[in-house]
Design brief:
Elements lengths: L5 E6 L2 E6 L4 H7 L24 E4 L3 E4 L10 E3 L3 H15 L16 H9 L24 E3 L9 H9 L6 E3 L6 E3 L16 H5 L5 E3 L6 H6 L5
Parallel strand pairs: 1-5
Antiparallel strand pairs: 1-2, 3-4, 3-5, 6-9, 7-8
Helix pairs in contact: 2-3
The protein binds FE2/S2 (inorganic) cluster (FES).
The site of FE2/S2 (inorganic) cluster (FES) has 12 residues, from loops.
């Protein structure tokens, strides 16, 4: 097996050694430096880069998304500049403007990554951007173990990736374009009418309340399916 090569970079003044080709995001997180992110999956190649939350500034290069930009020898990276925070806040506000803020009743509240980054970036619900014209749909409760509430989907693509690339099933995928883009099943069928295996990986990786377990689903059936989730 070829020996892995490393590069030396600087992130926020800290010297960091990272595997060549590693994306800035993972090098920073490994070094204990927080960068907001919602859609990144380390194993995904190419990265989806859809949430636009992980902006950083690279000296001599400018603003880049950390989940898509590989480290290079001698790179000097800043994660906390005014320009970085401005872009991150705006990206988060745009996501929030299309997200029903039903946090009090949301089953994913304790682990919600939107709330996490709202606190981190000190972002409030953007009143100036609300409400986007949104057609609310009934959550899909057809599956015995979990609910798919498309209204809360932030299009991070994590469920699509694990369903296709890890499980090899491909029940969920993106459909339509632009503002109409959504994650859905083939022909929009209820999950129960698809080849879903009930592995629940999509529920595990969903950073918000778009996919969540039904009450009482924390049972044997679930444990049998769950392995290491990226
Ligand atoms: S985490 Fe980089 S664009 Fe979403």
């Amino acid at each position: 097996m070829p020996k892995r090569q490393y590069v030396e970079i600087t992130i926020d003044g800290k010297e960091v050694r990272a595997p060549m080709g590693e994306k800035i995001l993972w090098a920073a997180l490994e070094a204990g430096i927080e960068i907001p992110h919602l859609c990144a999956i380390r194993e995904a190649d190419p990265p989806w880069g859809g949430c636009r939350l992980c902006w950083v500034e690279v000296e001599g290069r400018g603003l880049v998304t950390a989940c898509t930009e590989p480290v290079r020898q001698g790179m000097v990276i800043h994660t906390d500049t005014e320009a970085v925070r401005r872009l991150q806040r705006r990206a988060l506000e745009l996501i929030l403007a299309d997200h029903p803020m039903e946090c009090k009743t949301c089953p994913k509240r304790p682990s919600c990554q939107l709330l996490r980054w709202m606190r981190f970036l000190k972002v409030k619900i953007p009143k100036d951007l609300r409400p986007f014209p949104k057609e609310l749909v009934e959550p899909d409760e057809s599956h015995s173990l979990f609910v798919f509430d498309r209204n809360k989907c932030i299009l991070c693509g994590k469920c699509v990736w694990v369903c296709k690339e890890v499980e090899g099933v491909g029940v969920l995928d993106f459909a339509y374009r632009g503002y109409q883009m959504r994650v859905t099943t083939f022909l929009g069928k209820p999950i129960a009418q698809t080849p879903c295996t009930g592995c629940l990986r999509c529920v595990e990786v969903c950073p918000v309340g778009a996919l969540y377990l039904k009450e009482g689903a924390e049972g044997k059936e679930r444990e049998e399916h769950l392995g290491e989730v990226p």
